[in-house]
Amino acid sequence: MGKSKQTGNHKSDKKKNISKKWKLKRRTKDLDQIHSDMKPETAAKLLHQEVDYDMTGCAQHYCLHCARYFVDLRALKEHFKTKGHKKRLKQLREEPYTQAEAERAAGMGSYIPPKSVEVKTQPVEEDMD
């Protein structure tokens, strides 16, 4: 008989899934969720939110593509120049995976390559203060 991999957890439930907690803590929106946020009516709501003192930067400085809030306009502009933001823009250029595409991949239709989507960094309003 081998020894159980998980030991010492009967005393405290807090120790059980520490790695799972950390993974979920840093979880961001998926690409298909961001694509739905990029639709004009949803994007307008996200970019012009009411002041919320519980959010970072009072929810006034939001990167639509990365789904992140920033403290001020300067931090948001600096973020637009970062490697992470540019990688996210590159990922968002490909059209999101759909059910129709899944059916074609399973042999229920002919293959159509995914389309590319034009994605540019969001415009920044200077007079937000």
Overall description:
The protein has 129 residues and is mainly alpha-helical. It has a domain at 26-104: Double Stranded RNA Binding Domain, CATH 3.30.160. The protein has 6 helices and 2 strands; from the N terminus they run αααββααα. The protein has helices spanning 18-25, 31-37, 40-47, 73-80, 83-92, 99-105; strands at residues 62-63, 68-69. A two-stranded antiparallel ribbon has the order 1-2. Strand 1 (62-63) and strand 2 (68-69) form a beta hairpin. It is flat, with a radius of gyration of 21 Å. The chain starts with 17 loop residues before the first helix and ends in a 24-residue tail after the last helix. The model has no long low-confidence stretch (mean pLDDT 83).
Short description:
It comes from Nothobranchius furzeri (Turquoise killifish). This protein is mainly alpha-helical.
Q: Roughly what fraction of the amino acids lie in strands?
A: under 5%
Shape: flat
Order of helices and strands: HHHEEHHH
Structural class, by secondary structure, is mainly alpha
CATH class of the domain at 26-104: Alpha Beta
| Largest β sheet strand count, sense and barrel closure | 2 strands, antiparallel
CATH topology label of the domain at 26-104? Double Stranded RNA Binding Domain
Question: Over the alpha carbons, how many angstroms does the gyration radius reach?
Answer: 21 Å
Q: What is the count of DSSP helices, taking H or I runs of 4+ residues?
A: 6
Question: What distinguishing features does this structure have?
Answer:
single chain; 129 residues; mainly alpha; Double Stranded RNA Binding Domain; 2 strands; 37% helix; 3% strand
